[in-house]
Write a structure and sequence with these properties.
alpha/beta, Rossmann fold, 5-stranded parallel sheet, 9 helices
Length: 311
């Protein structure tokens, strides 16, 4: 085997593999792209590219595995997978288009809420003319990583009063930043809360009744991070008690969302099917190609995940 080329295993049940195969096969550093499930010999595979979920037993068929990459920005499906050896580096996709699309979705959600678009749609249905007032909103972004920081800065540039919360202290121009034990101070003045946290043992189920109780009465929730952040029963209770005025949800604990799930018909919930920001193979492949070259040359891979931190 040419030592300057590697085999890759693509493992995804969510996306069609053809665009990834076509793009990766153009690289002079790729010998063959395998697609799971397969009975082919995988002993020469050095890179595993995954979008969740990954079947049990995949990694044991890869004795020469040197690198695992998520095919998206999320990595919770990998850092929590016991199949992946602790010494094997995990990387994620950091894509300006992913960041842009996520921010645009959040801006849309904030502005739709600010301008009472649900009520305007109802008024149109009722042939009712009502020039509804609006005011500037205090918007909080929970999580100031790559996506959250960009979202917060963009909203601030649009004139919203923006704050952000992160595990460790951050500084962002135009954004009031909170960290550590300042979560209550961060939450209490908000009109809109946007969740862009990574999923870790510390953030699992963080969107619960305790957190909702610390927000201003009538606050609006936008969850575009992960469904595992949200305690679904607590959200319904907060909406029914008017602690929260509404919610825009793009991610769920079970996807697709079951047809009998109460979220579908709740009058204060708006649903989109995990489309806020979707990886584009054309853009993501540039990063993967770069890291393939780095792997072959023995250089440090870009955008490695801190397994202990979870992101």
């Amino acid at each position: 085997m040419d030592q300057q080329k590697i085999d890759i295993l693509l493992c995804t049940k969510v996306w069609k593999p053809e665009p990834w195969i076509e793009g990766l096969s153009k690289s002079p550093f790729v010998r063959q792209v395998h697609v799971w499930p397969t009975n082919e010999d995988l002993s020469e595979v050095k890179a595993l590219f995954v979008w969740k979920p990954m079947d049990e037993g995949v990694v044991e068929k890869l004795p020469n595995l040197q690198w695992v990459s998520s095919l998206g920005a999320g990595v919770d499906h990998l850092v929590n997978d016991p199949q992946i050896p602790a010494e094997t580096p995990i990387t994620r996709i950091v894509d300006p288009f992913l960041t842009r699309d996520m921010t645009n979705y959040c801006v849309m959600g904030v502005m739709m809420h600010q301008r009472s678009m649900d009520q305007h749609r109802q008024n149109q249905s009722d042939s009712h003319w009502d020039r509804l007032p609006y005011q500037n909103l205090k918007v909080g972004v929970l999580g100031l990583g790559e996506l959250g920081a960009h979202c917060a800065a963009t909203l601030a540039n649009l004139g919203f009063e923006v704050s952000g919360f992160s595990r460790t202290p951050k500084e962002l121009e135009g954004v009031k930043c909170y960290s550590g034990n300042q979560i209550s101070d961060f939450l209490s003045p908000l009109d809109v809360l946007i969740n862009l946290l990574p999923v870790t043992p510390q953030t699992e189920s963080i969107l619960d009744s305790e957190l909702f109780g610390q927000t201003k009465k009538g606050a609006y929730l936008i969850n575009v991070a992960r469904g595992n952040h949200l305690v679904e029963e607590d959200l319904i209770e907060a909406l029914d008690s008017n602690q929260l005025s509404g919610a825009l949800l793009d991610v769920f604990r079970q996807e697709p969302l079951p047809e009998d799930h109460p979220f579908w018909k709740h009058p204060k919930i708006r649903i989109t099917p995990h489309v806020a920001s979707v990886t584009s193979p054309d853009s993501a492949l540039k990063l993967l190609m770069n890291n393939i070259q780095r792997l072959i040359k023995g250089e440090e891979l870009l955008h490695q995940v801190d397994r202990e931190a979870g992101y």
